[in-house]
Each structure stands twice: as C-alpha cells, then as structure tokens.
Amino acid sequence: MKLSSRSLLHALLLALAPLAVQAQTLRIGLAEDPDVLDPSLARSFVGRVVFTALCDKLFDIDEKLVIQPQLATAWEWSAEGKALTLKLRSGVTFHDGEKFDAAAVKFNIERHKTLPGSNRRGELAPVAGVDVIDAATVRLNLSAPFSPLLAQLADRAGMMVSPKAARAEGDKFGAHPVCSGPFRFVERTAQDRIVLERFPGYWNKAAVNFDKVIYTPIPDATVRLANLKSGQLDFIERVASSDMEKLQADKKLKTSRITEIGYQGITINIGKSEQAKKNPLGRDGRVREAFELSLDRQGLAQVVMDNEATVGNQWVAPTNAYYAKNVPVPKRDIARATALLKEAGEPHPSFTLVAPTTSDAQRLALVVQAMAREAGFDVKIQAAEFATSLNMADKGEFEAYALAWSGRADPDGNLYSFHGCKQPLNYAGYCDAETDRLLDQSRTLRDPAERKKAFEQIAARVLKERPVIYLYHRNWLWAYDARLSGVRNVPDGLLRVTGLKMAP
User: Fold this and answer.
1) Based on the structure, what is the number of domains in the chain?
2) pTM of the predicted model, to two decimals?
3) Is 132 in the same domain as 224?
4) Which of 78, 187, 201, 289 could form a disulfide with 83 if both were Cys (CB 3.0 to 4.6 A apart)?
5) Are 369 and 352 in contact (CB under 8 A)?
6) pLDDT, tens digit, for every residue of 1-56?
7) What does the mean pLDDT of the chain come to?
8) What is d(CA 339, CA 352) in angstroms, rounded to the nearest whole number?
C-alpha cells in the first residue's frame, strides 16, 4: 500500500516528535541532591545551581565578580553608607502571577531576617529596616555601613519569592517554591529529580530557549559522566578531575574549568555540642594543630584533585587580594605533630571524619586518613548523603566534617557566618568576643586596605584555634554536549540557564 505525501509527512513528524521534545529539555546532572528549595533556609551549593533557574535575585555577578543588575536595575548609597536605595525592574511577576514590587522586596528581606531557621539572618544582620518609597523604589536602612551588602543581595539573600505563596505555605514553602525566575517549579522526587518548566511570563523570556529543565542528582562522578556520554544528560557539574584530560579530546563534548571562590576544608567540632568534649580534636588545640601538620596540602591537591586546585589555609585563596599574608600556609611536619600529641597526652587520638558520599569527598577522606596515620591519628570515616551530613553538622552530631564551601564574591560570605558567635553556619561552635568585634568592624569598612587589615587580625585569631582546617580551592570542572552554547564561566560555579541554546 502506498502512502500519500501528507501521510508520509505526518509519519515523519511523529517520528521526529520525541527528538523535538528532547531538544527542548535541558538535562543537568548534579553531584548531590539539594536541600530545601527555600532561599531563606537553603544551605547547599547544589541548591544554588537549581535556584539560578528558579529564583531571580536583586543582583547577579559576572565572570569577573562584578555586581550586575537583575531584579534591581540601579542602586545608590547614602553619603554615610547607612542606606541603600534600589530601583526595581518593572513588568516582573512571580510564578503565581503576583506582581513583583517594592512591597515584595520588603517582605522578602524581612522574611530572610526573621523566618525561624533562616540561614540568611547573619548575611543581612546590619539591615535594620526596609522602606517602600514607591512601587518601584525601596530603601534598605542599615544599623552601620555594610560593605558586603551588594554581594549578599547577589546570592540567596537577594532572591525574591512570592509573598502570597510564602504566607500560604509557611514552613512548607520549600516543597512548592514560587519565585520569579525563568523556570517554575513542577515536581521533585528526593534523590531522583527536580523538574522545572519554562515560565511564560518571565521578564527576559527571549533569553530562555528550553521548555523544561530536569536536574538529576548522581553522586558518583563516574556514573554522572557515563550518563552524559550516553546522551542521557546534556550537562554535568563537578566532573572528576581524573577525567578532564580525556574529555578534552572528545569532540562530542566540551569542558569548562573555573577556579572557585570557595574552599575545601575540614570543620572540627570544638564547641557545637557535647561531642566536642568527647572528641580529642575538640578538647585540645594542640591536637588540632598536630592534625593540620600531619596533612600535606599539595599532596592532597595532587592525589584528590589531580592538581585541579590551589592549596591554601584560609577562607580565600592566596591569589585573593584579601588573603592574610601574616598567616602563611604551614608545611607538613610529622615530627612536630608527633611531639604535640605527646605533649597533649594523646599519642594515638581517634576521631570520626564525616564525609559526603560524593566521589571527591570520599577520596579526600581516604587520603587524609592515610596522611594523619603517619602522625599517630586513627581516623575513622563515616559516609553520609550530603543533605544528611549538613543536618548532622547543624546539630553538632560530628567530630570532624569534610565540608566544601562554594564561596561568595565578597570574603565576608566565606567568613562571617562560619566564625561569628551563634551564626547559622558556625558548625564548629567557635566563639570569641574579639573575633566577633573584628568581624563586625570588617563589615563597616569601605576602604580595601582597611578591610584587609581587619581580615589579617581575624586570621591571626581564628587560624590559631583551627575551627576549620582549610585545605585548597578547587577548580569547578564541567562537561557538556558540544551542541550546547551560551555556557558562562562565572567563578561561583553556578550554571546560568538563560542564554543557553542547543543546536540541532
């Protein structure tokens, strides 16, 4: 039987339909499953990857960490630096159809500051109040000059959610987030997928070229890469460093390498909970010093990251303008480490190192275990799914924790919430009144030279106590389908979905 031309065309379109649907869906492989999708409560880096598609911010940063407008189009500081006035973008709506305006900004800033469990509270602590000047103008009033504020508003503290939805959902908002980004929330299955669909009312819809984005958490880097190579994924973040050389020769794929603004470190419970007293690392600073001296940072970077990292001992890399040169990276010294342990009466201290189930974290834990053994340490490794490990850290249910921090454009974002007394990300439980004073002072200083002096004083105090042993600063390693264009290499390691396009 012969088919008519129309029938042949219809059959061809049916055959091509699955390919068309596939081309309109961007499939992204994540190294972990994000925690709660509520900008006020969220803590994980991988959650920020999802938020770039879901929740627009007042500001963004570019490839050179320069502040760029997003929902705020212009800003002006008062003469004394205690007020910031923002002009807001017009024609923006939330995913539920509610209008974005100055009242919405006021609601969100206040929610970030007051919501129980908010991790944005410390980031916005100097914001004393918000004034609605008119529908398109809002003023943030500060208790003191706050130099990191624009950088904070370029991250989750600047993300805007629908006030109507937030009020209606309460503490359940993270299960059905409503923002104003290019894609809106559809569904989530824990450890399996997060599905977003294009928001037709997006203010910059011309830059959106996909109908759907699906995020799939795959902790094993080898499995994540296999899914990319087989065509099941279009983009994967945090490629295993050992795979980069071969991938660069694969013409079907492209790679990106971006030095992070964060760090890899080991957080030690020195006062977060009762476990600090039972933990030899938590009880005695000499044991912590010995542990640091047992580690060869360059060796860690070479073995764990295939040299895709810069060694460091602070919250910013040695190449950063705010690196405190008065506290340089210590060299490995097994003899000194052994002597310190003997002096502390702990010749063979034993502790458990919690490490997320990601490939890099597990490899790091094993190498740390082997290195520390040479000084007399017995390091036991406890693997935990990433969100679970964060909950353990928050409750103080750990002795040592291998935590990678994704970093912020301003050093304050790597420092204040981790080392300020009772701050939300102070998993170590470190608290020192003079450090708190210096932290607060660093936030009021506008002159870079003066801020650097404050950071040097903070480093001298914090690094002596070692609530966190900083190890190195990783390269963000990405791999993706060679047909995908528009990928931007921003040092925060977050994939911006606007501007991405898949060639046929």
Assistant:
1) 3
2) 0.81
3) no
4) 78
5) no
6) 444 444 443 434 334 444 444 459 999 999 999 999 999 999 999 999 999 999 99
7) 94
8) 22
